[in-house]
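This protein record is not my work; I was only asked to verify it. Take the sequence as given and treat only the tokens as open to question. I have pasted the whole thing underneath without changing anything:
***
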Amino acid sequence: MPDMPDSDLNRKRLEVLDALSSGANLSEAAAAAGAHRNTIAYWRRSYPEFHRAFAHAQDDRAILRREKADAFLDRAFQTLGDALSDPKASPSTRVKAAIFIIQTALAPRSEQTDQAPQYLRYAPRHQPPLRRPAQP
């Protein structure tokens, strides 16, 4: 990767993080920042602050996806209920719907829903700005 001023590198990393937080996948985030996905992997390995911020952006993306899925949750369960009640539905469809509902109802709550994510529990209150480490 050619040398570039720290501000350009920081801008690119922030663009990646912003795109991920907004729901983009890794390839889309890389393209939005004008970086290659391998460069992002390098940043994750080489810059601890970027690694933490990347994990936070992935959590934001997961929350966004769950919120989008939640908008269809009632309709999805209604569809399952309709499949269970429909005498014309195949027995395998009714069984699959019943199994899904039972598994969902009996699934234990995730530890992550009860606690703050690990990166928030151990992160210092003030993060220094992203900067390039000194070359050895």
Notes: The chain has eight helices and no strands. The chain has a mean pLDDT of 79. The chain has two domains: 1-71, 72-107.
